[in-house]
Amino acid sequence: MFELPKYIGPDFSQARFKDCPSVTLKAVVKEGVAPEYFHSTSMFPEYFKVEGTWLLAEESRMDSTVIFKDNKLEVVEARNLKEGDLVILGRSENGEEGIYVHTTGFTAEENGLEDKFVFRTGRSRETAFSRDYDKLYELLKYEKEHGNVLFVMGPAVAFDNDSRASMQYLIENGYCDGLLAGNALATHDLEAAYFRTALGQNIYTQESVPNGHYNHLDVINKIRSCGSIPSFIAKEKIHDGIIYAMNKCNKPFVLCGSIRDDGPLPEVVGNVYEGQGAMRNLIKKATTVICLATQLHTIATGNITPSFRKVDGEIRPIYIYSVDISEFATNKLKDRGSLSATGIITNVQDFVVNVAKALGFKG
Is 181 in contact with 301 (CB distance < 8 Å)? Predict the structure, then answer.
């Protein structure tokens, strides 16, 4: 049975916290420009002593500023700062300037070996992932009832018949509450629904069909003609797949564009900063994030996902999984500072099928 780890917050009754000064606030004088010596956030819970009271910045993300507004803290990207916003200044993290970064709130006592030299401490193709899978299965059962699961997907998930069916099962049975992807995932999933191909190749037999390289372009054209993805699904009687299931279950998805997109689909957000904002709106609800074979999208998601979430007054961890066939891709998230990520090196199509079967899929 899965249980959330208990969060142990700082004891602000201690003298070392009582003696800390309150933070320094400075008003923005030019829109989109932070004052000199602004504080930049991390992925960890951060507390700020404002007018003698320690406050938690609840909706955090990496590499952003903190403002004090309407008697509460807001974490704001520097580009979104408005003239007059009161920005917290300070570069220390242990209370010296009224800023405390709490890195050990979920740290459990470790009973591991004290040996200085051990094999296989990193994650690679040789790593045993059985325990990670079992923990994920239990986590997803818990999150179905108590949390919010966000998937971040590359198009590889839509290239295979079984992985599409498995992902559809997860969505329709409450194990997916939102989706972040690009134009390609949605395009090829809907191509598979309409033509049974992805990039012109049959999603089961792997056989290329005549003129199949037109298929995704024809699907994009049809969807643009319909005006929206839901209109296309209704008109063409689409009845399977990832995007179909998201639409059927009224689950939100954000499709962000790139400079190499065909089309794109009508729902694709072409402005990169609007796309990031839309992504963050979904991330603010997420308690588990599962990233599948999409390196840059995974890193982008990791950078705007904190390590914690406040739910019903309680602070709990956010779980992040990075799943990819490439060791480089799974380790890159940790390199960028997302220390709470769990990497699983495997084919994402196999991963989705395994997870769905463990959660009851009989297909």
Answer: no
